[in-house]
């Protein structure tokens, strides 16, 4: 939200530096995200002064140029070559002096320099209207009033205004601050706390008076819950033209392009007081009657942007006596009932619409207007009539209008101010520090919160209706704190906390797995549960009809709840790859969301994403690319850590993989794993292989058991390693060698390792060579050579007998 500093000064005659004002607004909870300088004319006409043309003669070398001498008010006339046909001696003209910068329509500037034109010296430039940004006329130079003294700044002559605009990040609860009036009211409270007491100057409507009741409009409201208050007035004899310069400057400063005096005044009051208004061309309202109602589903209506829209049966519509729609109430006006240059009379509307209804309508039609922004957050219902009178008086003054009717005010149930009891003890407990009672009372008074009763322990308070977010005692404490200043609250350098023990088994298991994956070089990611609906089209296994659709999505990219963690994970992978982070290992614990018939279902998952190198590249480390078997090893180690073993491997049925397997325990599926299809990766701009694993986490939790970790002392006695080169049958697997070795020697054999496999022409057909290492160790003594030889002989004999192995 943009707030003009010059506009604020109409309410408070403050003379602070803008930076200090910005800091105070931020302390008050109206966070200033930036301060921008705004000029009614770009460059503020710096270096442009009024000059008097003393002489004007023909240029000797150019028929269309004149040589002039111009007095700039400093007693030193300068020579300027000018090509304008209307330049003449005795004129007062705007002169861009050496060093001044002029700007074109695109905002690009060029600097005035001393130079020669056709051989004659020129020390400046006599300017036309368009060259100064004051208009579009370029037929000749701009001739000024002869009474203006030469040397006078052009900025002073043309009343150029420089403003500072605060960009405020307004939180949704602060609907009271959606205007310059509201921000100034808050600023005044902050200044009082700093002992700066300024009068709050609110626009007067005391001159509001209806002279002749010449045109009456009837108002009918069909649903008072959707429209708790509706005001209107008829204004005749108006002339639609440009707004006065001061209104245009205010609107331009906050980024609104002026249109005409009627529209500009409604916009001005909107941003001044926070009350949206709408002006209808009275001659286009049939039957001189306004009916606020709902229309049939699918009714067609063309809005001001010339877009034909289909209405919902829940939209609040402003209609005429024949139920013809004129405007989507609180959101957007209609094309046929708007003010044009031929409008001579208007019906001016000021209303309070139900915030929830307006928000739904705005989202339904994808319309985000200044009016809907305020209505859907809740405006001040007590401001409705006041804002109407303020706008009516401005139209009367700047459009020549006449008030032709009394104010119609439909307000059947008056909104009462809210009552809250405030306890000093509760406030001190929440704040952690005692604030003097008188200070608290002064702060409440500065916020227009009235003290209706007082006891030793607290205050009975009346909250003004415009503070819809202040309903509880804690809200009062927050109001006191933000004005008193959070920075003024002392804090202890000692941190007290209690240690809690989480006995949740599921969380413990997640932490075990997370620690294991992190130790293997994986990084945890947390993706948004909202995603694109179009992602479901990338896999036939994902049912588009099972999407959980958002009723009011922030964007099309966040339109549905995700049915798979794959696509949000690939977004993260793509983001990193685009930033040259090419080796990635991610894991995510998350949920998927599905709608089956009328029932909703959430499923827990753990997913892994692997691409690129296994380890970081280094001069002394050999790196290899992460592959299918590496990731499979990670998966089995995770399941083994949870006590899940004896897994069955089957080809996966999931079509997101070009190659993939499913790991199961019996009939219970645990993990789908494989290489993601290139067609899917292409959608995310990924050109390298990505491996993806998807754990059915709920099944994993059911099967996981507590696996105790055994810890023993390191042996005091050394281990011994011996190797055997075995010539065995091609069909024999290492697993058979491994199991047979431990069956032959259970006591002293600690480990068996396959460190080389050879298959080649030098070996007999159907044979291969295994190089197997055996680690032997006695926990009670050092092994002797005879004992070692005996064990190795026993192992050799066992391999020869059971596997037909031959020692090479």
The SS-based structural class is alpha+beta
Strand segment tally? 41
Q: What is the count of helical runs?
A: 19
Low-confidence stretches: none
| Alpha carbon gyration radius | 41 Å
* Widest sheet: strand ordering: 28-32-33-37-36-35-34
The average pLDDT score comes to 90
What about the largest sheet?
Answer: 7 strands, mixed
Fraction of residues in helix: 10-25%
Give the CA-CA distance, first to last residue: 84 Å
Percent of residues in beta strands = 25-35%
Q: Which geometry do the CA atoms define? A: elongated
Features:
single chain; about 800 residues; alpha+beta; 7-stranded mixed β-sheet; 5-stranded antiparallel β-sheet; 19 helices; 41 strands; elongated
Your description of this structure?
- The chain is elongated and about 125 Å long.
- Helix 6 runs antiparallel to helix 9 (384-398) and helix 10 (424-431) crosses helix 12 (473-484).
- The chain is an alpha+beta fold.
- The protein has a seven-stranded mixed sheet with strand order 28-32-33-37-36-35-34.
- The chain has 19 helices and 41 strands.
- The mean pLDDT is 90.
Helix/strand layout:
Elements: E1 2-4, H1 5-8, H2 18-27, E2 31-39, E3 48-58, E4 66-71, E5 78-82, E6 92-96, E7 101-103, E8 109-111, E9 115-117, E10 120-122, E11 125-126, H3 154-157, E12 162-169, H4 180-193, E13 218-221, E14 229-236, H5 245-253, H6 261-273, E15 277-281, E16 289-293, E17 300-302, E18 308-310, E19 317-319, E20 325-328, E21 332-333, E22 346-352, H7 355-364, H8 370-375, H9 384-398, E23 402-403, E24 408-410, E25 418-423, H10 424-431, H11 437-446, E26 450-454, E27 458-463, H12 473-484, H13 505-519, E28 523-524, E29 530-531, E30 548-549, E31 560-561, H14 566-577, E32 584-596, E33 599-611, H15 628-641, E34 648-651, E35 657-665, E36 668-676, H16 678-683, E37 691-696, H17 697-703, E38 720-729, H18 734-744, E39 749-758, E40 767-776, H19 785-803, E41 806-807
Parallel strand pairs: 13-16, 28-32
Antiparallel strand pairs: 1-12, 2-12, 3-4, 3-6, 4-5, 6-11, 7-8, 9-10, 14-22, 14-23, 14-24, 15-22, 16-19, 17-18, 19-20, 20-21, 25-27, 26-27, 29-31, 30-31, 32-33, 33-37, 34-35, 35-36, 36-37, 38-40, 38-41, 39-40
Helix pairs in contact: 5-6, 6-9, 10-12, 11-12, 18-19
